[in-house]
User: Fold this.
Amino acid sequence: MIQVTPSISLDENEIEEHFVRSPGPGGQKVNKTESAVQLRFNARASSALSNAVFLRLKSLAGRRMTKLGVVVITANRFRTQELNRRDALDRLVALVREAAQPPKLRRATKPSKGAMQRRLDSKRRQSDLKKVRGKVSGEY
Assistant:
Protein backbone atom coordinates (compact mmCIF):
# COMPACT_ATOMS: atom_id res chain seq x y z
CA MET A 1 0.00 0.00 0.00
CA ILE A 2 1.24 3.45 -0.93
CA GLN A 3 0.23 6.01 1.69
CA VAL A 4 -0.82 9.28 0.05
CA THR A 5 -2.70 10.96 2.90
CA PRO A 6 -3.89 9.59 6.25
CA SER A 7 -7.22 8.68 4.63
CA ILE A 8 -6.05 7.70 1.12
CA SER A 9 -3.74 4.81 0.34
CA LEU A 10 -3.26 3.34 -3.12
CA ASP A 11 -2.89 -0.38 -3.74
CA GLU A 12 0.21 -1.36 -5.71
CA ASN A 13 -1.93 -3.67 -7.87
CA GLU A 14 -3.80 -0.64 -9.23
CA ILE A 15 -0.60 0.79 -10.72
CA GLU A 16 0.84 -0.62 -13.96
CA GLU A 17 4.40 0.06 -15.05
CA HIS A 18 5.67 -0.29 -18.60
CA PHE A 19 9.27 0.34 -19.57
CA VAL A 20 9.92 2.10 -22.85
CA ARG A 21 12.96 3.48 -24.64
CA SER A 22 13.96 6.86 -23.36
CA PRO A 23 14.62 9.79 -25.72
CA GLY A 24 17.78 11.85 -25.49
CA PRO A 25 21.47 11.06 -25.04
CA GLY A 26 22.53 7.73 -23.64
CA GLY A 27 25.78 6.42 -25.04
CA GLN A 28 26.53 3.12 -26.73
CA LYS A 29 23.58 1.09 -25.49
CA VAL A 30 20.94 3.78 -25.99
CA ASN A 31 19.00 1.73 -28.54
CA LYS A 32 18.98 -1.42 -26.42
CA THR A 33 17.80 -0.36 -22.96
CA GLU A 34 14.33 0.64 -21.91
CA SER A 35 14.96 3.00 -19.03
CA ALA A 36 11.92 5.29 -19.26
CA VAL A 37 8.86 4.35 -17.19
CA GLN A 38 5.26 4.79 -18.25
CA LEU A 39 3.09 4.54 -15.15
CA ARG A 40 -0.67 3.95 -15.51
CA PHE A 41 -3.18 4.41 -12.68
CA ASN A 42 -6.89 3.79 -13.26
CA ALA A 43 -8.31 6.55 -11.08
CA ARG A 44 -11.92 5.95 -12.10
CA ALA A 45 -11.87 2.30 -10.96
CA SER A 46 -9.83 2.98 -7.82
CA SER A 47 -11.72 2.35 -4.59
CA ALA A 48 -9.36 4.61 -2.63
CA LEU A 49 -10.54 7.81 -4.34
CA SER A 50 -13.90 9.41 -3.68
CA ASN A 51 -15.84 11.02 -6.51
CA ALA A 52 -14.88 14.54 -5.40
CA VAL A 53 -11.18 13.64 -5.30
CA PHE A 54 -11.47 11.98 -8.73
CA LEU A 55 -13.05 15.11 -10.25
CA ARG A 56 -10.32 17.35 -8.81
CA LEU A 57 -7.68 14.87 -10.04
CA LYS A 58 -9.23 14.96 -13.50
CA SER A 59 -8.89 18.74 -13.70
CA LEU A 60 -5.36 18.70 -12.24
CA ALA A 61 -4.10 15.90 -14.49
CA GLY A 62 -5.34 17.55 -17.69
CA ARG A 63 -3.89 15.79 -20.74
CA ARG A 64 -2.23 13.16 -18.56
CA MET A 65 -5.65 11.54 -17.96
CA THR A 66 -7.35 9.55 -20.71
CA LYS A 67 -11.09 9.63 -21.44
CA LEU A 68 -11.44 6.36 -19.52
CA GLY A 69 -10.01 7.94 -16.35
CA VAL A 70 -6.51 6.44 -16.51
CA VAL A 71 -3.67 8.72 -15.37
CA VAL A 72 -0.54 8.17 -17.49
CA ILE A 73 2.77 9.52 -16.20
CA THR A 74 5.96 9.11 -18.23
CA ALA A 75 9.28 9.55 -16.43
CA ASN A 76 12.53 9.68 -18.36
CA ARG A 77 14.54 12.21 -16.39
CA PHE A 78 17.16 9.72 -15.22
CA ARG A 79 19.22 7.05 -16.98
CA THR A 80 18.20 4.14 -14.76
CA GLN A 81 14.89 2.33 -14.54
CA GLU A 82 14.81 2.44 -10.75
CA LEU A 83 15.25 6.22 -10.49
CA ASN A 84 12.66 6.81 -13.22
CA ARG A 85 10.26 4.41 -11.51
CA ARG A 86 10.63 6.26 -8.19
CA ASP A 87 10.24 9.62 -9.95
CA ALA A 88 7.00 8.56 -11.68
CA LEU A 89 5.56 7.18 -8.45
CA ASP A 90 6.46 10.35 -6.53
CA ARG A 91 4.78 12.47 -9.20
CA LEU A 92 1.63 10.35 -9.04
CA VAL A 93 1.50 10.58 -5.24
CA ALA A 94 2.00 14.36 -5.38
CA LEU A 95 -0.80 14.68 -7.93
CA VAL A 96 -3.25 12.62 -5.86
CA ARG A 97 -2.21 14.44 -2.66
CA GLU A 98 -2.92 17.80 -4.30
CA ALA A 99 -6.31 16.53 -5.53
CA ALA A 100 -7.17 15.28 -2.03
CA GLN A 101 -7.08 18.79 -0.58
CA PRO A 102 -10.50 20.44 -0.90
CA PRO A 103 -10.41 23.90 -2.48
CA LYS A 104 -10.48 26.88 -0.16
CA LEU A 105 -13.92 28.46 -0.17
CA ARG A 106 -13.99 32.08 -1.27
CA ARG A 107 -15.89 34.49 0.91
CA ALA A 108 -17.56 37.32 -0.91
CA THR A 109 -16.42 40.70 0.39
CA LYS A 110 -17.17 44.26 -0.58
CA PRO A 111 -14.83 47.24 -0.67
CA SER A 112 -14.75 49.59 2.32
CA LYS A 113 -16.34 53.03 2.17
CA GLY A 114 -12.92 54.66 2.17
CA ALA A 115 -11.78 52.56 -0.79
CA MET A 116 -14.94 53.42 -2.75
CA GLN A 117 -14.48 57.13 -1.95
CA ARG A 118 -10.82 57.06 -3.08
CA ARG A 119 -11.85 55.36 -6.32
CA LEU A 120 -14.54 57.97 -7.03
CA ASP A 121 -12.16 60.85 -6.20
CA SER A 122 -9.59 59.41 -8.59
CA LYS A 123 -12.22 59.13 -11.33
CA ARG A 124 -13.34 62.70 -10.69
CA ARG A 125 -9.75 64.04 -10.91
CA GLN A 126 -9.18 62.16 -14.17
CA SER A 127 -12.47 63.49 -15.57
CA ASP A 128 -11.58 67.10 -14.65
CA LEU A 129 -8.15 66.66 -16.26
CA LYS A 130 -9.73 65.44 -19.50
CA LYS A 131 -12.29 68.29 -19.54
CA VAL A 132 -9.46 70.83 -19.51
CA ARG A 133 -7.97 69.16 -22.60
CA GLY A 134 -10.71 70.52 -24.83
CA LYS A 135 -10.35 71.27 -28.53
CA VAL A 136 -8.14 74.21 -29.41
CA SER A 137 -9.98 76.92 -31.30
CA GLY A 138 -8.43 78.37 -34.45
CA GLU A 139 -8.37 81.96 -33.09
CA TYR A 140 -5.81 83.15 -30.57
